[in-house]
Design a protein that fits this description.
It contains 24 helices and ten strands. By secondary structure, it is α/β, with parallel strands linked by helices. Residues 408-532 form the GmrSD restriction endonucleases C-terminal domain.
């Protein structure tokens, strides 16, 4: 739990250090309406001052205390903005040697030397940080006019403005930073979006006809709303930061909230074809004023609930998961299914089965056709049907895992064997309304049921078995990769005993289609051909080729 302190006490804690994993200063970046986070911040402080509020709250900071230094884990933008504000207010003794800007050396030098000499004029040689520092000073100056009592305002900021001061241990700093903001390499726009949304969506326009008591009530409501919105945002961040969520959506090195924000951008933005997703574009599109910010914060809340509902429902979880793992464009797929305005979309299962065999987003939703490669005809075929046919034909070959010389194929037959076996296991989970564990996508193994080392025992020269081999789809099952070593070169009965030995930790025991295979009493060329035939028959039926 944080300690409530005023700004005077905060700055007296020690020297603030902006660590290297933080991004640079960005609060003076302007939107299309020539507004920025620093202008809203200063305007809110001035409004609190004009209304003579006894207390005004500006959210929390999270820090590490170390040898008189205050390492800023969260709250760097606000702290730097306060530093720049006090510089403008000519309270330079109060901030002298108070900010160590480790992010960039030139930024540190300017803040602690040239800033204190009032060098605010922009220069074409300025680095990005210094440019934004100077812009912040200029924007502050435009809000606090010449007749404004700067000294009294400085005293108000020190004594009447409060924040929550959270101290954590040094060993938790990086993890806390990642939990709050995402990985350092991509710590760019999302925190700025959060800041602007919280400030603007909770800000109510000042009414000059309201008395001080009414204004106090309004400010109380603003702080209450801002806290509620911040809690919502933190809940979303916590959800997206869970390992199973990151693995499921394939967040990778993106900010944890990337897919929430980019999906909202894609389904809600106008004229987005000419704009890339960025803070400036998101801000100009959705956070131009308090009304739009509040509207779009609510839109994000509803979209987040849709994400959670899709994830928590076993059937949608399983088919969407299959799409996310196989789609050529996750963003397009998510936009297609999460856009409430799209009322004519195909079902998740239908989309997933075509994504599974490599069809693109547009091929799936548009039923794209192509001309048959025959100059004498004008026949056209559906591209996704052709791809499905080719994929099934590949896994129907005599050799799939390896060729007859135990060499790898250069085509995709082995990948399609994995994908089709994955599908069969997912469909079994659907029958039980159980969520499938998609960690197998990165931790996979295709296991030979009858071991390769004992293949000479089998006879595939018989006409009844000529279409089979030790490497055909009929002799393969899906396992979690870490379970592969438990089987080794064991024969079928030994593998079966291992599989059903509940005293052993064996993740693949949850793969229901794999279980059904090992439930057989014996495994010879007869069962291999039978399994191959039934698998291909099922796939043909699933893709409606019968």
């Amino acid at each position: 739990m944080g300690t409530k302190i005023n700004i005077k006490s905060y700055f007296e804690k020690g020297q603030f250090v902006v660590p290297e994993y933080q991004r640079g200063y960005k609060w003076s970046v302007k939107d299309k309406k020539n507004e920025s986070s620093i202008t809203y911040f200063i305007k809110s402080l001035r409004q609190a001052y004009d209304n003579e509020l006894k207390e005004y709250f500006i959210e929390a900071v999270t820090v590490v205390e170390e040898s008189g230094k205050i390492i800023l884990v969260d709250g760097q933008q606000r702290t730097t903005s306060l530093f720049l504000l006090f510089a403008f207010l000519e309270d330079k003794d109060f901030i002298k040697n108070k900010l160590n800007y480790d992010v960039r050396k030139d930024s540190h030098e300017w803040l602690n030397n040239y800033l204190l000499e009032s060098a605010y004029s922009p220069d074409e040689d300025d680095s990005q940080d210094i440019y934004y520092f100077k812009q912040a000073i200029i924007q502050i100056k435009n809000i606090l006019d010449e007749n404004f009592d700067l000294r009294d305002f400085s005293l108000f900021i020190k004594n009447n403005v409060f924040l929550l001061y959270n101290v954590i241990s040094k060993d938790k700093a990086i993890n806390t930073f990642i939990a709050l903001n995402g990985l350092k390499a991509i710590m760019k726009d999302e925190e700025l979006i959060k800041s602007d949304l919280l400030i603007k969506s909770s800000r109510i326009q000042n009414n000059i006809n309201q008395n001080k008591e009414q204004q106090f009530g309004i400010e109380w409501k603003i702080n209450e709303d801002r806290g509620r919105l911040a809690r919502n945002w933190d809940k979303w961040l916590y959800w997206w930061n869970q390992d199973e969520i990151k693995d499921y959506f394939g967040t990778g090195n993106h900010h944890p909230l990337y897919y929430l924000l980019i999906t909202y951008w894609n389904i809600s933005g106008e004229n987005k074809k000419s704009k890339d997703f960025s803070f400036d574009n998101f801000k100009s599109q959705f956070i131009s004023d308090g009304i739009s910010a509040k509207k779009h914060f609510e839109g994000l809340r509803k979209l987040q609930k849709t994400f959670e509902d899709l994830y928590n429902n076993p059937l949608s979880h399983n088919f969407l998961g299959l799409i996310l793992k196989t789609s050529n464009s996750r963003e397009s797929s998510l936009r297609y299914f999460l856009d409430a305005k799209n009322t004519d979309k195909i079902k998740l299962e239908e989309y997933s089965k075509w994504s599974l065999i490599g069809s693109t987003h547009l091929e799936i939703i548009n039923n794209t056709t192509e001309k048959v490669n025959d100059l004498e005809t004008e026949e056209y075929v559906c591209v996704k049907n052709r791809k499905a046919r080719e994929a099934i034909d590949l896994v129907n070959e005599k050799y799939v895992y390896w060729n007859e010389n135990d060499g790898e194929y250069k085509d995709s037959r082995k990948e399609f064997a994995f994908r089709f076996l994955l599908l069969l296991n997912i469909l079994e989970d659907n029958k039980l309304k159980r969520k499938f564990d998609f960690s197998i996508w990165q931790n996979r193994s295709l296991e030979h049921i009858f071991p390769k080392s004992k293949m000479k025992i089998l006879d595939f020269n018989n006409d009844d078995y000529i279409e089979g081999s030790i490497h055909c789809i009929g002799n393969l099952v899906l396992l979690y990769g870490k379970d592969n070593s438990s089987f080794g070169a064991k024969d079928f009965s030994e593998k079966k005993d291992t599989y059903f030995n509940t005293s052993l930790t064996f993740s693949s025991r949850n793969l229901l289609h794999t279980i059904s295979t090992f439930s057989k009493s014996s495994w010879t060329e007869i069962e291999i051909i039978s399994n191959k035939t039934s698998t291909i028959k099922y796939l043909n039926k699933y893709y409606e080729f019968n």
